[in-house]
Amino acid sequence: MIDHSLVKRFRQEVGDRLAHQRRLDQANGLPPMSGEDERQFARALISQVLEEHARGEIGLGRTPPTVEEEEALAAGIHAALFGVGRLQPLLDDTQVENIDINGCDKVFVSYADGQELTHDPVADSDDELIELIQILAAYSGLSSRPFDTANPQLDLRLPDGSRLSAVMDVTVRPAVSIRRARLGKVFMSDLVGNGTIGPDVGRFLSAAVAARKNLMIAGSTNAGKTTLLRALANEIQPGERLITVERALELGLDQFPELHPNVVAFEQRLPNSEGQGEISMAELVRRSLRMNPSRVIVGEVLGDEIVTMLNAMTQGNDGSLSTIHANSSMEVFNRISTYALQARERLPIDATHMLIAGAIDFVVFIEKRNDYHLGGKLRRYVSSIREVNGCDGRVLSSEVFAPGPDGCAVPHAPLSCLEELAAHGYNPGGW
């Protein structure tokens, strides 16, 4: 067991020494340390502080920490300075999928095998939990994000790619949800291997991306939409210029230059305490079209940016990818229409349906299910793919891949663009 009071004390001490060194460097006209240099310097300071602590314990006639205890303390201090404090062991566990915190001492963890277990407290008090979130908000993403009484909601991407959502003052106790990005660098072959898609669906999606078809990925919360989007994006050739637009940076395509050397990642900017400085998703999508994109990828559509995005898809930026919340592939069209009604353009339903028909080529629906007959194992799989065929007062579509016996999508109806996809390597069996 790690002594968290010691971690807290030493974190403050190391932080003070680190800040002092920053001030000295600035006073001497030296350039600021890089992130990696600062981490290395912090490790040296941590060793120094722990050595001083051990000498002090010996001087008082007490037993100093063992090598194992010192290593645990060093890891805890480093995590408190540069990571996520007591949450770090959970984020280091590759089997953890979701972490839900309802106050500092009510922690629930979901694992990849379907288990949901309680966990030790992640802070000594709710105030300390809020302080931890505030530190993360200050250093994650492209700009500092406030988290306080005036700004009680927060969404951000953690350094490991996980997505954090937090609220305070609108709940009895501060609440935090962290959704892990277990598969960051993921390919279609990985999804075929773990059963998310079948080989035929994998070949179809690869061909659709190569043919620059506009794809909308739909599903419920935590169904695996973002992971599928990453895999699809990794089918795009390295020579293409990608612009990603997100509420909080999550996709991380720019982190793999060997796959995507030319990426610009846009992140929505929230207003400051005076209500100024906001840059909305819709504005970022519009801005992305002026940045010479080969493709525009919108991480998640949740509002009025939908109209701008659909317009972008019909203006020569073919091959766009996006995700949306929906309960079925058919429901996506109603969800888009609802968002369009809320946009500043106030598009009527008929106009929205015409825009959808001209913009989206395929809707890919992914779902998750606990298969209790398989011991409660959590499954994620693509169950339906719908091709948009046109508009006649409503969006016309056909389910080209429908759920098979095990729920996974299998070929169901002919594709109208089969020849085009065949030119990119897709050869469906049985048609």
Please sum up the structure shown.
The protein is an alpha/beta fold and 431 residues long. The protein has helices spanning 4-27, 35-59, 67-82, 88-92, 126-139, 188-193, 199-210, 225-233, 281-288, 305-313, 331-342, 349-359, 418-422; strands at 96-102, 107-111, 116-119, 153-157, 163-167, 175-179, 215-219, 242-246, 263-267, 295-301, 321-325, 362-371, 377-391, 395-403, 409-411. The N and C termini lie far apart (62 Å).
The largest beta-sheet arranges its strands as: 9-8-10-11-7-12-13-14-15
Strand content bin:
15-25%
The tally of strands reads 15
**Poorly predicted ranges (pLDDT <50, ≥5 residues)?**
none
The rounded distance between the terminal residues' Cα atoms is 62 Å
Number of helices: 13
Note the quaternary state here. Answer: single chain
The CATH architecture name of the largest domain reads 3-Layer(aba) Sandwich
Q: What percent of residues adopt helix (DSSP H or I)?
A: 25-40%
Class of secondary structure makeup: alpha/beta
Instruction: Please give the CATH class of the largest domain.
Output: Alpha Beta
In N-to-C order, the SSE pattern is HHHHEEEHEEEHHEHEEHEHEHHEEEEH
Q: By CATH's scheme, which homologous superfamily of the largest domain applies?
A: P-loop containing nucleotide triphosphate hydrolases
Q: pLDDT average, as an integer? A: 86
Major β-sheet annotation: 9 strands, mixed
Radius of gyration: 25 Å
What characteristic shape results from the CA principal axes?
A: elongated
